[in-house]
């Protein structure tokens, strides 16, 4: 590529930069950029890297707490989990690549988020994922599910990090734009956390890992644009993953980190060499000079432009203390990885790249970071959808229950999670299928609880409430296993922010998340935004996915969803008003997506949750399940199926059977406990003015309602377990949802 | 009992094996790098699970050619114990220490689940603490665990009492439900399920403990 090529408005447009942005570049440089520099600006100023549409709003999120050691701004966030241990985690999207090439898109999403975590010195100990696909009847859906699941498994299994849970939704709004959000949780010692600030001049900049190829060039720019029918032509911008190399890179990095040779380290993710080097210089208040001739290259005749913008995977950039190069090189050679000193830090505050003897880019570091545009994009506020939908009150409850258990959004995800190694590392305490995954902190008696949550169907009618609900549900899921919720990572998936109605969803969603995080003392410590999730102008449902982490100080004081004893009393905690608006029942049985989303009462969430957690920690309850999608009856049946113990339940309390059993009121939990403990729980709840109701008793091998209507657990299990495998085998294509 | 765990590039159950051995024997095993040519003096060598060499070419094929394999063959040759779990089993068949091959799962998908196994034979250091016919639960986690050998080999394995574990509910299409086999000298065991993930009740169960107890009793 000719560097001296004239920069035309068309070239500027092809780089995803607006005319105003181009003018700003010229002002910052004091001259016109060359093509390499234009490429560097285009990735660093892309939505994906610069957060230009969201930055002003993300600032409003609560990010601090006494246990937060590192908030947003680093590769991942860090929390204190006691005894000198730190938990490091983050969630990140790989939506656009996964739609174009599902296996590699998902695989490299997993690889990328793992690097974000181990670049900070943590050993990854658990993976989660939040996936959204189009409607099951869409011709691409099965292909995408199959590819994404095998991509996640292919990468995570090889890395030897257990994939312990996640969530999956199907909805037509994702037909042309699926969401693949992966979360990685790692463990480090608090005194061995590595940051990306390349402080000081004259320190060697080293490149380790895989060689650089031409794959993924402009991936960050692609992730910052809408899709159209020609998007499959973008396949060459999807990176190809090599988990074998990443496993070696992980071990080599941790081995190097055990020494004191590193000043700063960062993975080469989106925008590869450019963003890693510019960000490290920016955070360190230094400059950086790269000699591109020294970059290990997989292909011949690579240009400076290609090397700077390549998103080849499994690469890291580190700044070492001077004189430590040989020590580091020995470790990387042992693991058969490339190692090259490719540059040096400077005190010029400039990002400089040389190639074949010439300076090919020379840009002030701040032009790529602080001076990147920040937009207060206009938004069109709209009032939340209100009102209660109508429904047929005479439908038989059990027939609807069976249908709901087999609905695409509700059916067992076993088909998926059996393709993920969930027990490697030998610390998995709770497997997928419960409220939160629980993974022991290696060599201790404490454990981390992990969950990912959002209900996109609540977010379109009321984005503020939907954002708050996602946080509340994550908090509730951690509470339901007995953990103390500590912090979240957010993965904000929205449509095109240049449309005021979408920008409103973003602003309100972030505000809702902030309100809930503040009320629940549950700060945001890391995150990622994925905007422009649209195809041919159709936006996805707003999907602010929340990844939550909590701590169990003693793993023996833990609850699971399974019923454990015949004769246990089943108790419902929290108030039931029978809210059916935007519920699974309404969509699956009445075929309507209508009404207000369930209101979120954060004070009630906190009060009820703190109560339930104390019951678990005091050994009063060990069978606990939060009430969410599908309502109380679904929660009870999931507990029965998990424990293999039937249940006999009484009459609906209020207002009618359908609203009581299938309403999705928030801040509720189902518990089961032996009679004496149950009495104590009910008394304590009453004393604290917490709504409590007795639903029935555990026993038998069926669900029996009001002593007359009966359905066997075997039949319910068949409905719940059957749908996914049949769907993936092509035997059952359900109607449009 | 002294033990060693071999570490190949992208082994990933090496730590699990180490932790299990340490918990059961009270002594940390030696962790031996694949490029070493000698083993320390040990009673048991464990080839751990994982994705040695990323499963490239064929699972276990490249690891079977690594430098340390000469020492492992010599160790097995003199009748000393070798345990290959999952990828370790694949390395053992690829290197000819055990007969047969492990093909892609019949369902063509990676399978991770707890499986019930029938203990077929108790005449070995690995299985002496189990009861014949006992059902034990170990997890499987593999994409290529479909055991194959020709009928003559399978007949011989069965005839010589070398089929040690069978699946109660075959997860991968293995011939005759075979989950684990023993070498002719009865000192090399390869199996796809993971006994080392079943030594701690907190993380799922303790059915794997008897295998290590048997080894300790026989080899100490």
Overview in brief:
The complex is a heterodimer of chains A (737) and B (220). In chain A, 34% of the residues lie in helices and 23% in strands.
Question: How would you characterize the overall build of this protein?
Answer:
The complex is a heterodimer of chains A (737) and B (220). Chain A contains 25 helices and 28 strands. In chain A, the strands form 5 sheets. A 7-stranded mixed beta sheet of chain A has the order 8-10-7-11-9-12-13. A 7-stranded mixed beta sheet of chain A has the order 23-25-22-26-24-27-28, with helices on both faces. Chain A has a 6-stranded mixed beta sheet with strand order 1-2-3-6-4-5. In chain A, strand 27 (702-705) and strand 28 form a beta hairpin. In chain A, helix 7 (102-118) packs parallel to helix 8 (141-159), helix 10 (243-257) packs antiparallel against helix 13 and helix 18 (463-480) packs parallel to helix 21 (602-617). Chain A is globular, with a radius of gyration of 26 Å. The two termini of chain A are 48 Å apart. The mean pLDDT of chain A is 94. The radius of gyration of chain B is 15 Å and the shape is globular. A 9-stranded mixed beta sheet of chain B has the order 2-1-3-4-11-10-9-6-7, sandwiched between helices. A two-stranded antiparallel ribbon of chain B has the order 5-8. By secondary structure, chain B is of the alpha/beta class. Classes of the chains: A alpha+beta (737), B alpha/beta (220). The interface between A and B is medium-sized, with 31 and 30 residues.
